[in-house]
Design a protein that fits this description.
The protein is of the alpha/beta class. The protein is built from 10 helices and 7 strands. Helices cover about 40% and strands about 15% of the residues. This is ComF family protein.
């Protein structure tokens, strides 16, 4: 009832074209079809060996998705969170996830969680994964804080993130061993963070590793 009243007073709009839609967070079909374009990211060398299942991105790293991610992460805008959750849910409908045993988010350091209030990799993907009968397991932990990766070159990103992740405990190591793991995050830039997480998952015994992000400009 409350949602219906709010929708009457403040009609929901598509986050891309601002056209009217039925529900908060919903995208219109035209914008969704135009922007939601899953593609396989090119991986070379060690990245290709670690992510032998490949890494997919739902969209290009440009507006409106780029702005929605920033608004959700740094401004904590609820409409942006809902729009990204809707986007991920519709994106998963386009993928075949039958080969996945366990979904693992890229972790944040506990101090960052306290500051932000959430891990975006969990927030954006959790409900959609449930709709696909998959559960997110926070298998990895961030063992030390790092500088923000934004603005750093690949070599600097790689050095900055080296040794930053570990498997949470023996129980979580058991969850990974012999499993086909899907690593999820909001953005894939150079792949340095993904590579480090993937390395830890591989060392924990993952049989195959896939990757999935909302957005990427990597080519």
């Amino acid at each position: 009832m409350i949602e219906a009243i709010l929708n009457f007073l403040f009609p929901p709009k598509c986050p891309a074209c601002r056209g009217y839609v039925k529900h908060n967070g919903q995208w219109c079909d035209d914008c969704l079809n135009k922007i939601l374009q899953p593609r396989q990211l090119p991986l070379e060398g060690k990245m290709g060996k670690i992510f032998d299942g490949g890494v997919m991105s739902f969209s290009e790293y440009e507006d409106p998705v780029k702005k929605l991610i920033a608004d959700a992460k740094f401004e904590k805008k609820k409409h942006a969170v809902k729009a990204l959750q809707f986007f991920v849910d519709r994106g998963l409908e386009k993928l075949d996830l039958h080969d996945i045993d366990i979904v693992v988010p890229v972790p944040l350091h506990k101090n960052k969680i306290k500051q932000r209030g959430f891990n975006q990799s969990v927030l954006f993907f959790e409900e959609a994964m449930k709709n696909s009968d998959l559960e997110i397991w926070e298998v990895l932990r961030r063992v030390h804080e790092t500088r923000p990766q934004f603005g750093l070159k690949f070599a600097e990103r790689k050095k900055n993130i080296k040794g930053a992740f570990a498997v949470a405990d023996k129980k979580h190591r058991h969850l990974v061993k012999g499993k086909r793991v899907l690593l999820v995050d909001d953005i894939f830039t150079t792949g340095a963070t993904f590579a480090e997480c993937g390395k830890v998952l591989r060392e924990a015994g993952a049989s195959q590793i896939f990757g999935l992000v909302i957005s990427s400009g990597h080519r």
